[in-house]
Amino acid sequence: MRLETRKLLDKAFSGLGLIAIAVMAMALLAILTPIIWRGSKAFVFKGTIEHRRVMLEQFDRGNSDRFNEELNLTAAARAPVYDMLEAFEAETAELEKTLEAQEDEKKTQAKVLKNQARALKREGGSEEEIARLEAEEDRLKAEAKALKEQARSLGETREEPYEALVDAVQELFGPMPGQKKPVLIRQQYGQTRWDRTLVKLHEVMVEEEWDYSNPDAMGVLVENPRIEKFRGTGLEPFFQYLEDHIDEMMRPKTTFYWQFITDTSKDSHIFGGIWPEVLGTIYLTLGAMIFAIPMGVIAAIYLCEYAREGRTVSFLRICISTLAGVPSIVFGLFGLAFFLNTIQVSDSKSVLAGSLTLSLLILPTIIRSSEEAILAVPRAYKEAALGLGAGRWHTVMTVILPAALPGILTGVVISMGRAAGETAPIIFTAAVSVGAPLKIWETLNQPTPALPWNIYNLCTEHEAVDEIRHVQYGMVFTLVAIVLLLNLFAILMRARISKKLRG
Amino acid sequence: MSKTANTNLIMSDAASRRQRISTLLGQSFLFLITSLSTFAVFFIFYFILKDAIPFFKLEGFTEFFSSTRWYPSGSPAEFGALPIFVGTGLVTLGAVAVAVPLGISAAVCLSDLLPFKVRQIVKPVIEVLAAIPSVAYGFFALVVFAPLLQNHGGIILSTGVWLVLGPILALLVIVLGDLLIDKLRKQIPNPKIAGAIIFPILGTLTLIFLFQLSTRLLGLEISSGTNALNVSIILGIMALPTVVSVSEDALQAAGRELREGSYALGATRAETIIKTIIPASISGILAAVILGVMRAIGETMVVWMASGNASRIPEPWYNVLQPIRTLTATIAGDMGEADHVTGSSRFHVLFAMAFCLLAFSFIMNLVSEIIVKRSRKKLGK
């Protein structure tokens, strides 16, 4: 090969490697950016008056006097909307009534003519006269029919499109004034967030329809402005008014809702925060740590300080690495079959069973990192302690462990992050989709909601998946933040240790 | 002998016996705790197998491994898991196709090309990639990536082709062109003229090929974003950190002597890496690939959320644009509906699947262990 090509090849090869690194960085960026950006919107967003109302009524938070002032302003802005709707109802009812009255009148006239014609026939009146009367009667009947048709079409407008409109308005603003308070919390309030408000406003303005007329292609979304259906009626200016005054009606204000983490959720996450899930995750993680740390550290001490290399120890090591390779879902099944169905640590799913399962999952990580930490302690420490006459156990407890503690802690913190983020092992052993925050003693026999499981649950099985995107993103953001903060902590600690060991 | 004599100088007989006993007790206690992980492994095998055997006893092996009809809730229920095995294999292959080339190039770059300071920055980035919980990846795959793929799949795929195939093909063109110049030396003695003829021709051919491929991909219509491709890409990214860190360790283990020897013989960096370092550390790289495969097979949340969960074999079997279903997702999804207590076939079939997963990962683990051990021996460490 010629030298130039070899050099070119060398450069290109370096470029390839750099591209690989760049792709990885891009992947990381692509995954983290939407999660952080949209996740932070669960905490900082433009909250509407309805959000403040939820906070006041459901969580006793906020100044009620100032809120009432604002509420009056919004009520004043909303009043014309409701007036227009009422006026339309009254107008159409009136029109219907007049139409029906006219129809009745025509009908009676037709009847009179019919009777006259019949009387003439009986008396043997002129053929011409009878025909004329009958023609008149038919004309009147047709007119009555036309009127009936008109009334019916009016009724149709009043029924379907109007009711759809009222429903859409109710989703935007909450229940109408004077209406009975609905049972479901989600129907008691309007839109709490400005972004959702705009979506709902759009739904009031246009009606969405799927067009499947072309059988070869996929369905096309068609947007029909609702105003077309109400052209010429009293509701025509309604839409313009809504568009112009939505700001005054909803009063958006930038809100910092840090209580998203500490609030319980209302009405399956339509309102409120994610405290039960966060608490459940904390319980599960700490529970796993309580079981895994002693077991892992003791095993590491044994393997490093006491065990003599031989068949037994290499067998132990194979077992530990096998345990590290077991797929997480298999841990979940094992937890179900062993902890719940066989030794029955609790009657149903529980935090205890989940913690035990998770602790098995992270055990190998803790053993390995503790072993590394213990091996990193300079031999001189140990030799000095033994030389001073300390026993082996004494040396381990007073010299080696304290020196290895930062390293062990690093491993522990990393596996905490792992335990907090794992979903598969807790599906069958600990997690439920809804629940109240648990008291500490309830963890022994109660299942809990947990962040990872509820992320899955909220974005696949929730009935209003699109309405609560911000909650899903907020949950993912919180989980990722917890795990990454733990890892950051570990990385910083490791940097400090390596500096100390070097210096 | 000397040890007992030594202690006797300080302690009485009784005290020394007491100490010996307590040491023995302490050691056996430590051993017991350590062997808990061994027990855990045996327990896992035992309890998964215990609940898997009733299924094989009742339904036999043939239907499970060869039938394509999976209707566990039907009457009569049908337990043909072949599509699920195919789906698992397809997704794993896809993940490997993403993770292995990227991971190995990144590892090479990390160990041999980048200066130390840059490495200090890149390594934590990889660790962050490994630390993100799988459910967050699943969420990303389902909520962000799947709609993107569904609406702009063609554009994404064709840019992907340019980004990934482009550099690789460029390298190939250089190598091939150079070989051709060597071959044509007799016909065209001046290498500059030969290069001026050969490189443009090869380059245009490659460009035409790339254009053809990307325009064809551009016109692609993807009916659903939750498909094997989506899952493969995300799983590949998830498996990357494992592949990178293990193969980087292997490359580092090849040692300075090999590199310096190669440079001394006049080889360029690329030649050193391709012809010396990679062959020397091939077994470690293989172990990295195996670990990556295991990570992809054992992953649950991403495949459950974003694979589409359709238990049929794609048409043709390698069509990654169709929804599939994997073993882990089936276990996770169906266990909620199966009867936990009385134990129906539907319950036990999931344990049978878990056993397949477990057995596979055990074998893979052993293989990688053996490979790593052998490579260490070969390198004399």
Please outline what is shown here.
Chain A: InterPro entries: MetI-like (IPR000515), MetI-like_sf (IPR035906), Phosphate_PstA (IPR005672). The complex is a heterodimer of chains A (503) and B (381). By secondary structure, chain A is mostly helical.
Q: What percent of residues of chain A are in strands?
A: under 5%
SS element count, helices of chain B = 14
Structural class per helix/strand content of chain B? mainly alpha
How many β-strands of chain A, per DSSP? Answer: 6
Overall 3D form of chain A: elongated
**What helical percentage do the residues of chain B reach?**
over 70%
Helix and strand element order of chain B? HHHEEHHHHHHHHHHH
Order of helices and strands of chain A: HEHHHHEEHEEEHHHHHHHHH
Number of helices of chain A: 15
Structural class of chain A: mainly alpha
**Roughly what percent helix of chain A?**
over 70%
List keywords for this structure.
heterodimer, A: 503 residues, mainly alpha, two-stranded antiparallel ribbon, 15 helices, elongated, B: 381 residues, 14 helices, 1% strand, disordered N terminus
Question: Describe it for me?
Answer:
- The complex is a heterodimer of chains A (503) and B (381).
- Chain A has 503 residues and is mainly alpha-helical.
- Chain A has helices at residues 3-40, 49-59, 64-123, 127-173, 194-205, 236-250, 275-306, 311-325, 328-340, 351-376, 379-387, 392-421, 424-427, 451-460, 469-502; strands at 44-47, 206-211, 220-225, 253-256, 265-266, 271-272.
- In chain A, the strands form three sheets. Chain A has a two-stranded antiparallel ribbon with strand order 1-4. In chain A, strands 2-3 form a two-stranded antiparallel ribbon. Chain A has a two-stranded antiparallel ribbon with strand order 5-6.
- In chain A, a hairpin with an 8-residue loop joins strand 2 and strand 3.
- In chain A, helix 1 (3-40) crosses helix 15 (469-502).
- The two termini of chain A are 48 Å apart.
- Chain B is mainly α and 381 residues long.
- Chain B is built from 14 helices and two strands; from the N terminus they run H-H-H-E-E-H-H-H-H-H-H-H-H-H-H-H.
- In chain B, helix 8 runs antiparallel to helix 11 (282-298) and helix 9 runs antiparallel to helix 10 (269-280).
- The longest helix of chain B has 50 residues, at 134-183.
- Mean pLDDT of chain B is 85; it is low at 1-8.
- Chain A: Pfam families: BPD_transp_1.
- Chain A: Residues 85-157 form a coiled coil.
- Chain A: The chain crosses the membrane at residues 12-37, 282-303, 315-339, 391-414, 473-493.
- Chain A: It is a multi-pass membrane protein.
- Chain A: Belongs to the binding-protein-dependent transport system permease family. CysTW subfamily.
- Chain B: Its main location: membrane.
